[in-house]
Model the fold of this input.
Amino acid sequence: MSWRVEVDGATCIGSGMCSAIAEGYFELVDGVSQPVRTEVEPTDDVVDAAESCPVEAVIVRDADSGRKLAPEH
Amino acid sequence: MTTIDPTPRTYPFSAPDRLRLDPFYAELRKQEPVSRVRLPYGETAWLATRYSDVRTVFADPRFSRAESAERDEPRARPTQQRTGILTMDPPEHTRLRKLVAKAFTARRVEQLRPRAQRIADDLVGRMRRKGAPLDLVEEFALPLPITVICELLGVPYEDRDDFRVWSDAFLSTSKLSEQQVEDYVAQMRAYMAELVEQRRARPEDDLLSGLIQARDEQDKLSETELLDLAVGLLVAGHETTATQIPNFVYVLLTHPAELEWLRNSPERVPEAVEELMRFVPLGVNAAFPRYALEDVELGGVLIRAGEPVLASLASANRDEEVFERPEELNLARGSNAHIGFGHGPHHCLGAQLARMELQVALGTLLGEFADLRLGVAEQDVSWKTGMLVRGPRRLPVAWGAD
Done:
């Protein structure tokens, strides 16, 4: 099982919360966050990043089913 | 371009009147969405009132909070806070916020719900034993969030009478004198410094110990930042929720049709909490101005580099471009993009915790008291004055046969 990490570049405000919380999983490019790899092994860090994004621009999905895992709201 | 009245208006436009939002905001949204205002203290400012402009001010990195620390910030209180997480921009702000963010994610907060529910159940049990009428603020609204934040942060609940008094210093506009504000802030910091030393000697499984570890073992923050953060969490962690619980109950008790609907649909409490967050203007006025770091066009006017902009959350939450019949409380509104918790990097860290506590509070009170009502006439409810937030000072409630 693996997860898919998405960042909505239009929503992202470049706060850097995701790259700070899940080091190595996100990078800021010209003030907008991008996942370093879109498919990742399940890890709490990316869920925390998605749930800590102040504008909910980070979404974590199950790679197979596409089901949204985070954020919850 | 909109025509701007060059003479700044006195702001806030009127003294707070219960939870009523001054209708002048609606006029400004239509006629002059970004206007000039003068607050009791600090520089003349711009005021944004439309939803889209308010979001821009809060989220666009061209608008800075850090800059305010260097300036005479437009504000409603004599003292100006120049340190702490609220006067920082990313990436400095991110460095501090990430240290505590994980403790406040939806998932982490869900784990606290059973404990919050037990606290709420105990409180309503005690209310029943004491009998009606009684003050909801003292008996329920304060102890619930204070207990939760104390346990989460690692602050002894027995000390609440002290830090409750000191907390007012962070939210007072004219309730306290400048001297009192200075004294209470100093006492709060001294109290927290002592607590930090205790935890440093004997760490426990709480957020304060975690922050100390981040400081001592990983050098992630300075001692001043640690103290500011801990004090900020304690104050923000209870004052706002403790004020919103009676605000929400007051709104429900004065909107009987909406209350009836909620009583018949208890599973929709979470949705009701979102609509109440939109509807209740907790802040007396727009606060925490952002400074333009370069020239920015906003709502048809040019904000020059170095000028401060205030953005009204309460006005944004009543924007008719975004919300249908925005002046009406509609608990069944459904999709609700309110920004009652703010927006952007400073979006309320404790939003999920507040949501959970507010849901538990309303669910428990409505479940326990089938005929909850005001214990005094509506016009006799006494409201806070001289504070940054609106809320009943006391909210007498009754139930059962009088």
In short: Chain B touches chain A through 22 residues (CB under 8 Å). The two ends of chain B are 60 Å apart (CA to CA).
